[in-house]
Every structure is written in structure tokens, then in C-alpha cells.
Specification:
six-stranded parallel β-sheet; 44% helix; Rossmann fold; globular; single chain; alpha/beta
């Protein structure tokens, strides 16, 4: 088995490290109301884990890059203001990140979120010193379920894909990890707990039940 320093863990962010599903839903709902667009909670759950640039076109009926960016930026500004008032890590996430860091594992974020959101959460949860790389949805050619975000994270960690474990909560993210050739731990969030995940994913109910040894066993 490779030494800890040559192994990596790539974390999704929303729904895995931070409990932000409700803030995201309220931000989408506010944007839909302002723009007179129908976007239901079922639509939100169906698209959870995808990039804004993939979510907006079919519901807002636009393929204009400038309009998509304007809508996405506004939605995310609403979300960030909500998050500043109530940012909470999910059970077990911070403990596992610290334990992996102390054990010498390389760690990255591989999130569909815009970089500005990621930077805010890094500060709110004091994560910067625990991570070795960050990849946002804006920095990959394709969003999840394509594997691009996770492959770029592995490249930045300088760790082979086969020596990486991804921690996810969404179907698009889980599929992206599998297609990247990475082991995956799926810890469903309240938004995704009802879904059936691929059998290749190691499903847990809480990251509080996961230790460094459990992560090692997947490689």
C-alpha cells in the first residue's frame, strides 16, 4: 500500500463538509421568484451537485453565457449572505479532515461550487491549513457527473487517481468519482438520502462513523 503522503482524499463540499442544502434551496427559490421561473424543490433535488451553468439553461431557457453568469452570480450572492449567518459543518467531517491531515494524507476540495463560495467556506470553517488543493466547478471543462473536477484535484495533489478516495453525497459526484477511477465514500445528505447509489460506492450514514483506517481500507 502506498505511503500516506502519496495517497489522497478529495472532498466534495456542499452536503459533505458543510450543511448548506437549505441555504442553496432558499437561494434558488428566491432567484426563481424574482425572475418568474418555475423551479421546484423537486427540481432542486434532481440537480443537486451540478454546476449552475448546467442547471440554469433548461429552467431559465437561456444559453447566453452572459445571462447564465448573471443569474448564477445573483443566486450565489444570495446564498453567501445566508451562509454568513449560519455556517455549520456536518457531523464527523472536520474530525476526519483533521485526522487524515495528522496521518499525512494529501487532501483537496473538488466541488461544483463557484470559487468565491469555496473561499468563504474555507474561512468560515478554518479549513485552509488542512487542505493541499482546491478545485472549483469553474476550473474544469465539464462539471459532475464528468470526472474532470476530481481528475484535476488528483493532478494538483500529485497523486494517481487509483490512490485517491472521494467523499461525496450526490449521484453526479459519485459517478464522477467512479469514472475517474477513484474509490468513493458516499455519505448522503438530507437532500440525497433517498437515492440509490452505485454499488461501487461505500455508503455510510455519517462521517462521524468513519476513521482513517476505513479510508485506507478502500485503496
Amino acid at each position: 500500500m502506498p505511503a500516506a503522503g502519496t495517497r489522497g482524499v478529495i472532498w466534495d463540499l456542499d452536503g459533505v463538509i458543510i450543511d448548506s442544502g437549505e441555504q442553496h434551496w432558499q437561494a434558488w427559490k428566491a432567484l426563481a421568484a424574482e425572475t418568474h421561473v418555475t423551479f421546484t424543490e423537486a427540481d432542486f433535488r434532481r440537480t443537486f451537485g451540478q454546476r449552475n451553468s448546467d442547471i440554469i439553461p433548461p429552467y431559465w431557457h437561456t444559453h447566453d453565457p452572459d445571462e447564465i453568469k448573471r443569474l448564477a452570480d445573483h443566486k450565489e450572492s444570495i446564498y453567501r449572505e445566508m451562509l454568513k449567518k449560519d455556517a455549520r459543518a456536518l457531523p464527523g467531517a472536520m474530525g476526519l479532515i483533521r485526522a487524515l491531515h495528522e496521518a499525512g494524507w494529501k487532501q483537496a476540495l473538488g466541488s461544483s461550487a463557484p470559487l468565491e463560495n469555496i473561499q468563504l467556506i474555507l474561512d468560515l470553517l478554518d479549513l485552509r491549513l488542512l487542505l493541499d488543493a482546491v478545485v472549483s466547478g469553474e476550473e474544469a471543462p465539464r462539471g459532475k457527473p464528468a470526472p474532470d473536477i476530481f481528475l484535476e484535484a488528483a493532478r494538483r495533489l500529485n497523486v494517481p487517481s487509483c490512490d485517491c478516495v472521494v467523499i461525496e453525497d450526490s449521484l453526479p459526484g459519485c459517478q464522477a468519482a467512479i469514472d475517474a477511477g477513484m474509490a468513493v465514500i458516499v455519505c448522503p445528505s438530507p437532500m440525497t438520502t433517498h437515492l440509490d447509489f452505485p454499488v461501487a460506492a461505500h455508503r455510510v450514514s455519517s462521517l462521524a462513523d468513519v476513521c482513517v483506517g476505513d479510508v485506507e481500507s478502500l485503496l
